[in-house]
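Reviewers of the previous submission asked for a worked example of the structure-prediction workflow described in the proposal, so we include one complete record here. The input consisted solely of the amino acid sequence. No template or homolog information was supplied to the procedure at any stage.
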Amino acid sequence: MERALAGRELTQHEYRIEINGTTQVWDARYLPLATQPGQPPDQLLMVATDVTEQRAAQEARFEAAIAQREMLVKEVHHRIKNNLQGVAGLLQQIGQRRPEVAGVMSEVIGRCRRSRRSTDCRWAPPGRCA
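From that input alone, the workflow returned the following structure tokens.
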């Protein structure tokens, strides 16, 4: 409060208080006031608001956004794997129809499969691809 009184601008601070095992969040705003115009502030107007529910809702939105992001990453990963598998299948068909390029196609198919495996390991739980 002394810091707020020393300043000449609105200051804000958030307090977390534990009461009976539950945490409450309070937003406090301090505005220094001067009794006489042109004089330094000698009074402090404080407005405190219980923002516990707003912070809980905000945290829930953040957690939902993180869960949605993780789901989207998994979906993209799944689509990449499917596309690589599709490309490898098409290349294999080309190699079967045109024996003169079968060796090159086999090499490219191997690269697709290795790329797919490395993608699997990148998104796998720790220790699965060790």
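The chain has a mean pLDDT of 87. We consider this example representative of the routine output the project will generate in years two and three.
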